[in-house]
Amino acid sequence: MSATRPSSLLTINPSICESALKGKSMELIAHMMEQLCPGSCCCCDCSIKTSDTERVHHAAHMLVRDLNNPPDIMEIARSVGLSRTKLFSCFRQMFGLSPFEYLRNQRLQMAMQLLQDGEVNVTQAALMVGYTNLSYFAKAFKSIFGMAPSELRKSFRIT
Questions:
Q1: pLDDT attached to residue 23
Q2: Is the pTM of this model over 0.70?
Q3: What DSSP character marks residue 72?
Q4: Within its chain, how far is the Cα of 27 from the centroid?
Q5: d(Cα 159, Cα 8) in Å, to the nearest integer?
Q6: What's residue 26's pLDDT?
Q7: 48: left (phi over 0), alpha (psi -120 to 50) or beta
Q8: Contacts 24+ apart (CB under 8 A), 68-74
Q9: For the CA atoms of the chain, what is the radius of gyration?
Q10: I want to staple 130 with a disulfide (CB 3.0 to 4.6 A). Which of 21, 68, 108, 157 is the partner?
Q11: Which of 74, 84, 34 is nearest to 54 (CA)?
Q12: Phi, psi dihedrals of residue 11, rounded to the nearest 5°
C-alpha cells in the first residue's frame, strides 16, 4: 500500500517561493529575448557569429547532459569546432558565466529541484548532480540560494 501526499498539505516557505518565482521569471525573460533576436547575443554589445552561437549552445547542452559526469572542456571544444579560448570567450559573452560556472549553476538548480520534490535527502541530491564533497556542495548551494540545502529541505515539510 503506497501513501500519497495531497498537495494541499505541502507547506512552502514564502521567501523560497518568491525566490523560485523570480528565478523562473528571469529564465522566461531570457528565453523571450532569445526568441525576439535569435542567433545573436541581445544582452551585451558583442559580435558572436550565428554559427558560433549555435556551437556554444551545443557545448552548453553537452556540458549539462550528464551532470554527474560532464565531459572535459577540451573534448567539448573539439566536438563543437571551437578552440578552448574561443569557447570560453563566447560562453562568457552569451551566458555571463564561464563554462564551469554554468555547470555549477545547472548542478545546483537540479539539486534544488530534487530537494524541493522531497524524494531525496541532501546527500543523495549532492551525489546525483556530481558533488562528492558534501561540505563544498553545501557552501556552493548557500552561495547561490542564500540558504543551506538542509534548510531548504526542512522548509518543504508535511503539515
A1: 65
A2: no
A3: P
A4: 11
A5: 9
A6: 65
A7: beta
A8: 68/127, 68/128, 68/129, 68/130, 69/130, 70/103, 70/130, 73/99, 73/100
A9: 18
A10: 68
A11: 34
A12: -105, 125
What number is the average pLDDT over the span 1-22?
55
Whole-number Å distance between alpha carbons of 159 and 25: 28
Which residues share a beta bridge with 10?
A: 158
Kind and range of the H or E run holding 137: helix 134-145
Q: One-letter amino acid identity for 97? A: L
HSE, CB side, 13 Å, CA atoms: give it for residue 15. Answer: 6
- Ramachandran region, residue 130 (left: φ > 0; alpha: ψ -120 to 50; beta: rest): left
Q: Rounded to an integer, what distance in angstroms lies between the CA atom of residue 99 and that of residue 101?
A: 6
Gap between the Cα atoms of 6 and 27, Å rounded: 29
The predicted pLDDT at position 121 comes to 92
Amino acid, single-letter form, for residue 136: Y
pLDDT in the model for residue 67:
85
- Triad 30, 39, 102: Cα angle to 5°: 50
Q: What number of CA atoms fall less than 13 Å from residue 112's CA on the CB side? A: 20
Check the CA dihedral 125-128-132-138 and report its sign.
Answer: negative
Can you list the alpha helix ranges (DSSP code H) found in the chain?
14-36, 50-65, 73-80, 84-95, 99-117, 122-128, 134-145, 149-155
